[in-house]
Amino acid sequence: MTPDRKKKLRLLLRKKAAEELKKEQERKAAERRRIIEERCGKPKNVDDASEANVKSILIQYHKRIIALEGEKYDLEYEVAKKDFEIADLNSQVNDLRGKFMKPTLKKVSKYENKFAKLQKKAAEFNFRNQLKQVKKKEFTLEEEDKEPKKSEKAEWQTKK
C-alpha cells in the first residue's frame, strides 16, 4: 500500500467514526426528549382555561410533585443504605485480608529539612558568640558571701 492510499483510508475511517458518533449523539438526544416527554406529559394550556380548570390542573400537578418527591426520598434512602452496606463489606474484606488503606502522605523535601536544621544550628552558634562578657564589678557577686574569714567568728559563737 502506498502512503497516499493509507492517508486516504485513515481520513475515510475518521469521517466514518465522526458520522457514527454524531448519529449516536442524536439518537441519545432523541431518546432523552422522548423519556422526558413521557415522564412529564404534555404541557397543559392554562392561558385559555377557566379558573376552575386552572385549579384542577394545579391540584394534579401538586399531587404529581408530592408523589415524585416521595419516590425521590425512597430512592435516596436506598442509595444511602447501599453505600453504608458497601462500606461495611469493604471494611470486613480488608479485615479478613489484613490490608488496610494507607493514608496519602504529603511529600516533604529532604533538602528543606536539612537546610532548616543547618539554619537552626547556625542560629544557636551565632547567639553564643554574640554574647558580651561582663567585666564590670557591678554585676559580679561579692566574695564575702562565699566564705567567712577565719578570724571572724559567727554571731552565735560571740554571744554568751
TrEMBL record:
Coiled-coil intervals: 8-38
What is an annotated GO biological process for this record, any one?
muscle contraction
GO terms assigned for molecular function: actin binding
Q: Which Gene3D superfamilies match?
A: 1.20.5.350
Q: Where is the signal peptide?
A: none
Keywords of the record: Acetylation, Actin-binding, Coiled coil, Methylation
Region feature Disordered, mapped onto this chain: 140-160
Pfam families per the record? Troponin
Similarity annotation: Belongs to the troponin I family.
What name is this protein filed under? Troponin I
